[in-house]
Specification:
binds iron/sulfur cluster, alpha/beta, 9-stranded mixed β-sheet, single chain, 12 strands
Length: 390
């Protein structure tokens, strides 16, 4: 079985290339963009991509692999499960204006010098990137830049150092009540490391954000469930599509639920994966049946190579309205929100909208958002998103 690190390695080989850097920097200049796309290097990259995608398919975690194979058989490549975890050519080819490397400016919210794993946007809570390893590589991940370095054999020591620095910061900031363990995937650090982290942080409310439930449900072992129960962890799942909840996933969620662990969910709204109110409603209903409380559906940030995943704001509002007005409150209580430099904002926070330029405001602060260029957003046909009902 190839290691989970291999997936990020192949992704890096593919995306950390000078030609792509050049392409990204040329995005606002139509002419240079065209020149680069006609270059030999670019054409070679597109050719290589086909080969790399085959390689990546071998690294998709077992639980998802079979479903993706089935999906390919029914609707070909690029379906909702495929698109979430494997690169497609359009990711490089489609461009829109005003994308940026780090829209939420995480680097400006790192309160401790040289500790790029501590992120704080709100006074009462702090987020810790406890690991940069994930069980697979979500193609739309806004933290892709951070998943390019690995903790190798010294993971234990790295985590210990991170916790020491974090505790020092927490001791100096009594107003912080909650620590959010994020990543990478915190479940990937394994039982011993997780036990250490939870014991060290037992005075705080702890939240764990994980997509392991979809990628590697077996990684949430009985020991991990017990330790999460002991320290009263809030577990926040990242599940994008109803087909990600298969029998194995359901069984694991039931086990976690039977242990009284509070389960929540938040996930992104992504074109080609779940960009239809019907899909969202099925997903939210499934979550409700499993006692998972959905918190937020995130509007995708305008980061590099995100155009293929984003949805126009007009259509996002249509989707929100459809979910809101055609479902009971136990479904539509979920919030549609977007992470920005001024914190989370919602549609209600829009104070200006001139063509593609939108301004959100929160607590007296403003942030600019640029909608997708025209002609990019095509609603995904429902029969592609829900191919099993074909
Ligand atoms: S699991 Fe989370 S951190 Fe990891 S690649 Fe997916 S979205 Fe990014």
């Amino acid at each position: 079985m190839p290691s989970k690190k291999s997936m990020v390695c192949v992704m890096n080989e593919l995306f950390n290339q000078p030609i792509l850097e050049e392409l990204f920097n040329s995005r606002s200049e139509e002419l240079s963009h065209k020149i680069i796309k006609n270059s030999k290097e670019y054409k070679k990259l597109i050719n290589d991509m086909e080969h790399k995608i085959k390689q990546l398919l071998n690294y998709v975690p077992g639980n998802m692999y079979e479903e993706i194979e089935r999906e390919i058989k029914y609707i070909g490549k690029g379906g909702p499960l495929y698109k979430s975890v494997l690169p497609i050519k359009e990711k490089i080819e489609i461009k829109t204006s005003m994308e940026t490397r780090d829209y939420v400016e995480e680097f400006n919210h790192m309160p401790v010098k040289d500790a790029d794993y501590i992120i704080q946007k709100y006074s009462d809570r702090v987020l810790v990137i406890i690991t940069d390893i994930c069980f697979a590589h979500c193609q739309y991940c806004f933290r892709t830049y951070n998943l390019s370095t690995f903790q190798q054999s010294n993971m234990k020591e790295t985590i210990k150092n991170k916790i020491e620095v974090l505790k020092k910061y927490l001791n100096e900031h009594e107003e912080i009540k909650e620590v959010i363990l994020s990543g990478g995937d915190p479940i990937s650090i394994g039982y011993d490391n997780l036990k250490y982290v939870l014991e060290e942080l037992k005075e705080y409310n702890i939240r764990i954000h994980t997509r392991s439930i979809v990628y590697e449900p077996y990684a949430i072992t009985p020991d991990i469930i017990n330790i999460m129960k002991k320290y009263n962890v809030r577990l926040v799942f990242h599940i994008n599509h109803p087909y990600e909840i298969d029998n194995v996933v359901k069984e694991k969620i039931n086990k976690i639920d039977n242990n009284g662990i509070r389960m929540y969910a938040q996930f992104p709204l992504i074109r080609g994966i779940n960009d239809n109110a019907k899909v969202l409603k099925i997903l939210l209903e499934k979550m409700d049946e499993l006692n998972i409380r959905p918190l937020s559906i995130f509007i995708a940030d305008p980061i590099a190579y995100s155009a293929v995943f984003r949805i126009s704001l007009k259509r996002i509002i249509e989707i929100i309205n459809e979910v809101n007005w055609t479902s009971p409150s136990w479904i539509n209580s979920v919030r549609f929100t977007m992470d920005t430099t001024i914190g989370k904002v919602r549609i209600e926070n829009i104070i200006e909208w001139k063509e593609k330029h939108i301004v959100f405001s929160r607590e007296g602060k403003k942030v600019d958002y640029y909608d997708l260029d025209d002609g990019i957003d095509e609603p995904t046909p429902l029969e592609k998103l829900l191919w099993k009902t074909n």
